[in-house]
Write a structure and sequence with these properties.
8 strands, binds cytidine-5'-diphosphate, 11 helices, about 230 residues, three-stranded antiparallel beta sheet, alpha/beta
Length: about 230
């Protein structure tokens, strides 16, 4: 890639493999990764820690923002930005069912989106970066150097997600239940899941993790050797 700082934006629906792909692309290119979904999850976990109302559809935007400001920091680590809650990483809380089932309404709050987008732009201001989420190539980094939109068949996305959670081959019933959850989350997230007109669509249903990483790295290399965009 060029010596000028660059942004690679990877978007796509739930469990399309954005975060793990973004992690490996960043690793291969030797730059940091920033996962916007982890920030939405951290904000949700922070609001849960403040207790009270458990129904996220009844949460008040100002309270959610207050919890985020007080508890969540996006901290630059060696290889990635980490969404810390109360001063420490808490991957278990971020990936918990309690957070997963409440994150969509939180991500639907406009001021929360502004808050997350500010953290993402601050992260990108520190140097070249791979970012992933739903709207990185549209709302947050419209001038990103490389934009990818990852999709995969819902059954395959569900199969990968439960295999990761259970650490074994799932049964068809387990995959079916997860497919149902994913399809519902896709519907709730539809408004913010946007493919940029200049994004490359990559269907990963029949690709391995390594193959999809190879394709994105190759694309990044190809684009970096072209004449720079006039912007
Ligand atoms: O589990 P999955 O990889 O699908 O989701 P995630 O990337 O961890 O994001 C969790 C949730 O945050 C999503 O279901 C969306 O509601 C929200 N999100 C968003 O609205 N915009 C983003 N740029 C990233 C995540």
């Amino acid at each position: 890639m060029t010596s000028k700082p660059y942004v690679i934006a990877i978007d796509g629906p739930a469990a399309s493999g954005k975060s793990s792909t973004a992690h490996w692309v960043a690793e291969r290119l030797g730059v940091r990764h920033a996962d916007s979904g982890a920030l939405y999850r951290a904000v949700t976990a922070a609001r849960l820690r403040d207790g009270g109302e458990m129904d996220a559809s009844k949460w008040i935007e100002a309270d959610v923002l207050a919890s985020a400001d007080r508890r969540v920091r996006f901290v630059a680590g060696g290889k990635a930005f980490v969404a810390e809650i109360d001063g420490r990483p808490d991957e278990e809380a971020l990936r918990s069912a309690d957070v997963t089932s409440r994150v969509s309404p939180v991500a639907g709050m406009q001021r929360v989106r502004v808050w997350v987008n500010e953290r993402m732009r601050e992260a990108a201001a520190t140097g070249s970066i791979v970012v992933d989420g739903r709207d990185m190539g549209t709302a947050v980094f419209p001038h990103a150097d490389v934009k990818i939109f990852l999709v995969a068949d819902p059954w395959e996305r569900a199969r990968r997600r439960v295999t990761q959670l259970l650490q074994r081959a799932p049964t068809d019933d387990e995959i079916a239940a997860e497919t149902d959850r994913l399809v519902h989350r896709d519907a709730r997230d539809a408004r913010q899941t946007q493919q940029a007109p200049d994004a490359v669509l990559l269907d990963t249903t029949y690709l391995t993790q390594d193959e999809q990483v190879d394709r994105i790295v190759a694309l990044a290399m190809a684009i970096s050797t072209r004449a720079p965009k006039a912007d």
